[in-house]
Amino acid sequence: MHRTPTPRAGRAALALAAAVVLAATTAPAARAHTRPDGGTLILVGGGLKDDNAEIYGEIITKAGGAGRARIGVLTAASVPESQDPDAADPERCSNSVCNGAYYAGLFKRHGAADAQWIPVDIEHVAAADSDAAVAQVESMTGFFFGGGDQYRYLTSLLHGDAHTDSRVLAAIRAKLAAGAVVAGSSAGAQIASGPDMVSGGDSYQALRDGSAPGYFDDATRLGYVPAGGFGFFGSGLLDTHTGTYGREGRAIRLAADTNHDRVFALDENTAVEVEHTGGRNESLRVLGTHGVSVFDLRRARTRTVAGRWSIEGVRYSYLTRGDRYRPRTWQVQPAAGRRPLTAATDAPVPADHDVFCSVDNPDGVPYGFSGTARALTATTAQRTATATTYETGPAFAVRFERRGDTRAWTDDGTTTASLADLTVGIGPAER
């Protein structure tokens, strides 16, 4: 497995910009808005495939349906056209302009009546307060935020040190509150976060070193933005690309460090649809090909012994297509037609010595964390399983425990499709 990191020069430039923002936002800033209530969020964990008709179709449906939906596309998380060495090549370009056109074309192919790029990026910040861009937003019935780097969204759609909405963002926020759909993938999902939005980091380094406010040139260092993103989603922390990059460890560590009691960690090509966003009837549903991890830290306990961090008592649920979740009651509802799984195999849980799919392991296999959990719920051979990190200085172990209130559901009668309330602990491993 290989990941494509943000170029170091690009991260360094953004880190400098972030330092300016963080200097004034080390605590959540006052906003000139209230939390939206009534609209729908569709947040994708990145890696959204062009042919994912389920997710694109749901965005279009919530925006008014095929032939009526008008989607405003925002790609300010991408580099601007002037910084893209391949800007002149339509087959290789990756900048705000060509990415905007790309997504607009995709939405039209999936049935939208219209889709338009909203021309705001880090080199055209003034456009976020222009009459023309606001009028464009007002004519749309739904919105999609593309991927890239969420810090570019902060610097292009919020007003610097004040961390208040530009006119474009305020108009989108009002549309969401009135019932519109706002979707995003990767950075476009992360930016929906409230306080303590993650800004980077890998799981092993997060467990070893902890988190810090900021945006760091070292892409492995766990950083976060105390003031958060746009605050569209308030039911927990968000993380993306979870199973592919093994980000479960960093999600748990960030939540523990910042005193959050819940994290929603989204897999690639998978979305969580949040209906009645921010309201009493807020409900989540999973769409797509993989799953959404929900980490419940209400009963979790952390400690540090001889400089080594550990946590116990995290409740872990892994939800897949069609499963629902009620944030107010912390309840999982399995998808229609899914039935309880009774463990029937006596096969042991396969050993995993790279639970977070380390970038340093050329043979790393993604989805090790959720794979171990699913295997444990399907076997009678054991009630606990342990998986370890690829790194050994020191190594960390993840301990999974099936308890009396752990539940699992199946589609085929033998394998786990989704699960709820497995207990997870992480601490130094003996090797």
From TrEMBL:
The keyword Protease applies. Gene3D superfamilies: 3.40.50.880. Residues 1-29 form the signal peptide. InterPro entries: Class_I_gatase-like, Peptidase_S51. Keywords: Hydrolase, Protease, Serine protease, Signal. Belongs to the peptidase S51 family. This is Cyanophycinase. It comes from Kitasatospora arboriphila. The lineage of its organism: Bacteria, Bacillati, Actinomycetota, Actinomycetes, Kitasatosporales.
